[in-house]
Amino acid sequence: MENPKLKKLSEEWLPEADIEQLQEKMENGEITSRELVLMYLHRIASIDRHGPALNSVLEINPDALQIAEALDAERRQKGSRGALHGIPVLIKDNIATHDKMHTSAGSLALADSYAKEDSFVAKQLRYAGAVILGKTNMTEWANYMTVGMKNGYSSRGGQVINPYGSDFDTGGSSSGSGASIAAGLAALAVGTETSGSILSPASQHSLVGVKPTVGLISRTGIIPISHTQDTAGPMTKNVKDAAILLSSLSEIDLEDPVTESNTELAGVDFTEFLDENGLNGVKVAVARKTYFEYLTEEKKEILNRALSVLETQRAVIIDNVEIPTTKAKWTYDVLTYEFKAGLNAYLERFAGNPEIRSLADVINFNFANQKAMLKYGQSLLLAAENTSGTLTEPDYIYALERDQYLSKENGIDAALANNGADVLVFPNNYGASIPAKAGYPSVTVPAGYTEEGEPVGLTFTGKAYSEAQLLKCAYAFEQATKHRRAPVL
To answer: Is-catalytic flag, 197?
Structure first.
């Protein structure tokens, strides 16, 4: 980097800087949003494309510098819009932006597709004054292309690398969002989750990940898998930044009817709930049965130490809790049936590629370009295409009813009620699937590292629209431990 001031800031201060620190320097005139963009771009060039070559950023917004300059001028003339004014944000490549960037879900089939309009998430970010810096790489089609695809791989972007170690898993489909923020390539990222795709990469990259209640953030303009389970959510280096980003995204959207169930949290400032003593008196149910058995002894010890911290913070620990339906024979039938209907609707409205207007078109493109597209196959795409796309099949309706009952009334709700608990805790993201099927929220937070340096996370889960409680617990744990450390690149 030619500018010596920016070079020093980029290397010594920027990678772990949070929103408050970035805003303080911009308000004091020490740096501008334009300079922030330049510094992050330099890091992307140096780290994502060279050096460790993380491959986490798929595309840069060609207007980012000019947007930042305009926001700098607005700050000088009118003052700041708020906490995100001038802050560079990366978003997952399945979130539509009506600009000069593509929206492809990591697939070469949509590599030339420009979205016809902004997603609701993109609109909210722009309204808040954030700079959408670029799109992050992801597991292709949010890991709903085939069975056995490696986390973080896409035909368009290649393989994402975990900055904590190339041998470590990158976690679920928001892998590029996780790796980029862990490596300090932007201040914040937005990921998406259907089942574990925010929580998993957040755990694997020592980040805070918020998988909100389905309904807190609009899905309009997000390439879908399942309208029952899909949601966007923040991925950040600390809980406060996650709360700030969540606040900017949580608004009612009449085009996404489920957001109208959000009767209390729309427009709420989630930072108001952050409390260092937020675990005091909270009844925490530990979902030890089933989930802890997947851990190595080393990771079990890390999680046991985390539980000891909860006790030190005066939480009431209810151990060995089991969700009643943990061992039920769960299926992915709901996703299989909903994917075709949702994707076809998205492609018809948002996609700018006239040659790819349906799931059938995607499948045919993949067959026509087998060497590039079918490294792992497309079994899930084929299964979804084999449905009617009308959601009238009895098997779909029965699966939907079953999932809803087993995950809600006889799942998370029952586990909390039967044990008189306020929240559940899981190791990493191992308990993500049942709350995902319920559409319930979870927050993961760094809990430590193995001897080899692999991050381990602790996840708090609750009932619908309990984000305030979960963020309060996560913040108290974070402040008591300060586990997060930057990767050595």
So the answer is: yes
Backbone phi and psi for residue 116, each to the nearest 5 degrees, phi listed first: -75, -20
CA torsion angle for 90, 93, 97, 99 (degrees, to 10)?
A: 80
pLDDT confidence band for 1 (50 / 70 / 90): confident
User: What CA–CA distances, in Å, run from 474 to 4, 206, 221, 361, 394?
Assistant: 38, 13, 30, 43, 41
Contacts of 260 (CB under 8 A, 6+ apart): 215, 252, 254
CA 401 – CA 394 distance, rounded (Å): 11
The answer to whether 26 touches 33, Cβ cutoff 8 Å, is yes
Closest CA to 461 of 92, 198, 269, 178: 198
The verdict on whether 250 is a catalytic residue reads: no
How far is the C-alpha of 79 from the C-alpha of 59, rounded, in Å?
A: 30
> Could you say which of 92, 237, 299, 463 is catalytic?
92
pLDDT value of residue 162: 98
Q: Which residues pair with 249 in a beta bridge?
A: none
Predicted confidence (pLDDT) at residue 45 exceeds the cutoff of 80: yes
Rounded to whole angstroms, the Cα distance separating 184 from 388 reads: 44
Are the beta carbons of 412 and 179 closer than 8 angstroms? no
Question: Whose CA is closest to 134, among 221, 68, 69?
Answer: 68
> Of 56, 107, 180, 197, which residue is the catalytic one?
197
- Whole-angstrom distance, CA of residue 238 vs CA of residue 444: 10
Whether the model clears a pTM of 0.70, i.e. scores above it, the answer is yes
Catalytic residue among 56, 107, 154, 173: 173
The Cα 364–Cα 379 span in angstroms is 13
CB 445, CB 208: distance < 8 Å = yes
173 flagged as catalytic: yes
pLDDT digits (tens, 9 = 90+) for 384-431: 999 999 999 999 999 999 999 999 999 999 999 999 999 999 988 887
